[in-house]
Every structure is written in C-alpha cells, then in structure tokens.
C-alpha cells in the first residue's frame, strides 16, 4: 500500500502531491497523463449550471463494473475510500473505518501493526481529489456511452419502420446486439413501442431471417401480460414453430425460451402456443445431445406443456416415450429430472403406459437410474416402473429383473430415502418375485454383491 505523508497533503497547493509507489507526482500530472486512467471531470452540466458529482453515488454505480486502482482502496474494508485520512504511520484509510478501529481499543496501524505515537488523523485531500476525479471521468464516460446506446436504439427502431429486405434483417440484428449487451435499454425498447413494431414484422410471409432476429430481441425483453397476449396469435406462433425446426441452435433456444415466457403466469395459454410442429421440434432438440443447453431448454418447455392433457396425448402419439426414454442415459442431472417428470406424467395415460411397455430400452434405462442420480430421480423412475408393471406385470417384471431391478430395489429399501419411497420399492420387489422360484429370485437379487 503506498504511503501518504500528511505534511505533503496539507502544505503544497495548488500543486498537490501524491505518492504513487516510488514516484512523487502532482495531481495535475497524474490526471493529465492518465496514470490512473483519469481525465478532467468532477462536474456535470445541467440546465442550472455545473453540478458537482456525488462521490458516493458514483462509487455505488461503478464499483461492480470496473476495476478500481488499489491506491483508492481502504485496507480495512477493501472498498473505495470516500473520505481518506492518513495516520502518523503514513498509511491511509477511510475515516469511518479507522475511527471504528480506534474505538475498539486498538492503538496500532492496521496495516503495519506498529504502535502509534499519535492517534490523530489528517484528511488526505490530495487522494480525495484524485479519487473524485477518477470516478468522475469513468462515470461521465459511462453516461455518454449510455446516451449513445439509447440514441442508437431510437435510430434502429425508426429505421425498422422504413427499411425492408436485407436492410430490415441487419437493423434487427443490430438491435438484438444492443439489447443483449445493454440491459439498460430493454425498458426503452418497450416504452417506445418496440414490441408492437417487432410483432408487426412476424406473420405468415415473414422470412426466417427476420423471424429469428425478431424473436432474439423479444425473448430478452420484460413483457407484461397484455404484450404477451398480443403476441399469442396463430400466425406468429406458427412462424416461431417453423423457425424452431429449421433455425440454428441459438435460434432454437431463443424460440423455446420465448414460448416458455409467453406461458408464464397463465396456464390457459399453453394450448394456444402448442402445435404438433412445435412438439416435434422440441423432441428433435432433446435427441440432439451435442447441445446440452438446447436439450435443457426443450425439456423445460415440454415439462410446462405436458400439464395439458391434450398435449400429453399428442406427445405419446408422436413417439415421445421412446425418444425421451432413449435419451435418458445421455442427460445431465437437471435435464434428467425434467425428462423423468415428463415420462411420469405420460405414464398416467393408458396409451402412455402401453408405449412404455413396448419400449424395452426405456425400462432398462429406468432401472439403471435407480439410486444413481438423486432421490427425486429415483422417485420418478419408480413411479414410472410401477405404472408399467400394473399394465403388464409378468412381461415387464422379467425384463426389469434381468436388467438388475431387484438389487436396486433392495438398495432403495436400505437407503435413507423417505418411507413412502421404500414402501413403493418393497411392493415392486414383491411383484417381481411372483414370477420366480425363491432360489432363482434370490440369485437375481445379487444379495452378496448388494451387501458388499
């Protein structure tokens, strides 16, 4: 930590000096040469004249977004100083922090731990002025960038009203980049009619390029219920489903998140945003495990959509059981929980249970997942197996036991899982044993290996 000398700070004005390591520099040189990234500043022009910027407000707004020079940091709180004072030891601290140190009975310098012969503090006006100047320059630069960005947003919104073709695509792309890079302009886009304007571009004859960029903007905005309602139109939803099926992985994820956003807070909209094309596209995303983020997004939306009974029937009808069951082995924990939840919901339907019975790979994968990931995944897997066993106990129990179910059930019973889960496991184990002589079933349970 640089040492500040009180005598220097109070006797040399206007050319105040500050000790920066091994060099003694006057404040004007430090600011002029940009040694600490500074520049002139400290005031902002208003209609009533120049107004001095408040240091506390600037620190609060800037501290999390910039790297503050260590010379401005109080060694006690590790936060930028607003009222720096220097001790007789030459060390500088925030006034409130060092006074609190003294109030606790300490008569030493917190940094050097040397005993102080004088507990008085001297305002370090040089450092205070340097801190204020540095933060002012950063603050004014931030405000200028913000104003430039806001102006750019208005310019792009205005251009979207006039341009067509590739120029429209480029304007949308530029607006998407601004919105994703600067969260401060999101409200501005909404307040200036951006949502209605972009929505008007999404229709039956909209190109996928325009649609992809439009959705990429809308999914990053905060939309109220009225705006969402206006977006849920058949032609727009149909366009989004088409884009989801044919776009890049980024576009697919944006479309998925956008539809999820439209359904939040209003379950009655679920059927309005769903279509066979959408469901097919989501299952394709789940199958394409090269993109885990896409898999997670697709399963999250499917989990929401399958709360509707007619959509559950559609999912079973397009082979969702086999597709989800076949994907289980390659999913991460988050996606796995969603996939099992969906399969559990589908197993509540007679046609869902029949599809599970006919999908041997799904049954085997469910057995493998028991006691492997989490208690909630085990619970879902047991619930699905139970639904299938009730439909075809002999056929399914033989398949499951050959896959190692009996040993897994014993592990669940011996685990610290909740009693209801253990009871379900015991019932399944009993159901499995009905198809085997005792001696054979015991060997199937692999008791020796389980105990080990």
Describe this structure in words.
This protein has 452 residues and is mainly alpha-helical. Among the domains are: 6-142, 2-Layer Sandwich (Herpes Virus-1), CATH 3.30.40.10; 161-273, Up-down Bundle (Transcription Elongation Factor S-II, Chain A), CATH 1.20.930. The chain has 26 helices and seven strands. It has helices spanning 6-11, 27-33, 55-62, 95-103, 125-160, 165-181, 186-191, 194-200, 208-218, 225-231, 234-246, 249-263, 270-273, 276-287, 292-305, 309-317, 320-327, 333-346, 350-357, 360-369, 375-391, 393-402, 405-414, 419-433, 438-445, 447-451; strands at residues 17-20, 23-26, 43-46, 49-52, 84-86, 92-94, 122-123. A hairpin with a 2-residue loop joins strand 1 (17-20) and strand 2 (23-26). Helix 11 packs parallel to helix 14 (276-287) and helix 17 (320-327) crosses helix 20.
Walk me through the topology.
Layout: H1 6-11, E1 17-20, E2 23-26, H2 27-33, E3 43-46, E4 49-52, H3 55-62, E5 84-86, E6 92-94, H4 95-103, E7 122-123, H5 125-160, H6 165-181, H7 186-191, H8 194-200, H9 208-218, H10 225-231, H11 234-246, H12 249-263, H13 270-273, H14 276-287, H15 292-305, H16 309-317, H17 320-327, H18 333-346, H19 350-357, H20 360-369, H21 375-391, H22 393-402, H23 405-414, H24 419-433, H25 438-445, H26 447-451
Instruction: Quickly give the structural class.
Output: mainly alpha
CATH architecture of the domain at 6-142: 2-Layer Sandwich
What is the first-to-last residue Cα distance?
A: 59 Å
Helix content: 55-70%
- The shape, in one word, is flat
Describe the biggest sheet?
A: 3 strands, antiparallel
Spatial extent as radius of gyration: 33 Å
